[in-house]
Amino acid sequence: MKYYLKASTLLLLLFLATSCKSLDIKKITSKIDTEIGSDSSEDYFQGVLIYDLKSRDTIYSHNSNKYFTPASNTKIFTLYAALKTLPENIPSLKYIAYKDTLFIEGTGDPTLLHPYFKDSSALKLIKKHNHIALHLNHFKEERFGPGWAWEDYDSYYSPERSGFPLYGNIVDIHMTDSLMVTPKIFQDKVVPIDYIRNREEEKNVFYFDTSRKDTLSVPFKVDTSLTKGLLETVLQQQIKIVAEMPSLIKKTLYSIPSDSVYKRMMLESDNFLAEQLLILSSSTLSDTLNSGTARRYVLEHYLSDLKQAPRWVDGSGLSRYNLFSPESMVAVLTKMVEEFPQDRILHLFPLGGVSGTLEERFPGNPGPYIYAKSGSLGNNYCLSGYLITNSGKTLIFSFMNNHFIKSGAAVRRSMQHIFEHLRDNY
């Protein structure tokens, strides 16, 4: 009898605990339903998935298996691809020392002479040799991604993709006592007038209003002769262009920590770094540089279990051809913290109210609680990442908004109400 009473008591307590938890979840989801179903949200498309990492419970789901234009949320997939395919340090260069010549080819490394990283690891190696042969034919990629806006060619956020990028494929122009241009090779290519465009579309002629106080960053048009000229200028020695590498084993030169590039990409939503990271990933999989190789490999080998196979066409999310579901976003975010240390992953994401593209958005009270990647294109705003509740639980979420015509600020306010509700009550 005593055993029976104890068992009955335990069952009752378990039932009550489960009932209380169900009531709490229902109360939380009811609040989210109200926000999602409000009059202000009824004229655009929303998808939401909120997942409890520890309990493996889905807290809330709304259109989570539907496809959305993700914008820069695409960089979450790019980050995962890089984490799975790249070593701790960036593969900067592949080379063969043969007879009296150093043969070199790029890996797509975006950091060489980049204005932020200023890495010169490859230059230090090259300068040790008197005869340099540069191979560029292994880059098999269009300069722009599919679906990119053609008119963005002269915008800072749309540099060309390339196999041997230098200076971030960007020209920086600013005015001090005189016109300052980096790289200096473009000094006489800058026309000091106020003009509707920053650069001619098909050639490296730039326009700069000398009355502006800030720095103008403009993508330059990449070609073989320019890459050769930029390298020769910085090395102060002649370089020969070759059609192929010798048939010998290539060595790889490694440079800066990979995490420093990932963090910069995620915090600043840097499109150039995102595109080049996929090209860099392809350099570890094949002798040919092509971002499609990296995307296919990651989807086939690491993400074949996704319930909604994404349409993934670039690394940055500039293309509106990209299509991802909230469920796929949450799946990849979950894989990240299961396969790599959680502290490392959180460190790579913008922190709400503190850093990167979230510095002025989704602040905490009293402290920050959201680690997430935003994504915005005209009429679209998405946010996916991790939410740490006041009770210490980690929630993984993806909140995707497409086709709204009201302000993005209004959309974000609605999202913030939901996030704060989860933070305070879950």
From TrEMBL:
Keywords: Hydrolase, Signal. Residues 1-22 form the signal peptide. It comes from the Bacteria. InterPro entries: Beta-lactam/transpept-like, Peptidase_S13. One of its GO terms (biological process) is proteolysis. One of its GO terms (molecular function) is serine-type carboxypeptidase activity. It holds the Pfam family Peptidase_S13. The keyword Signal applies. Belongs to the peptidase S13 family. This is Peptidase M15. It comes from Arenibacter certesii.
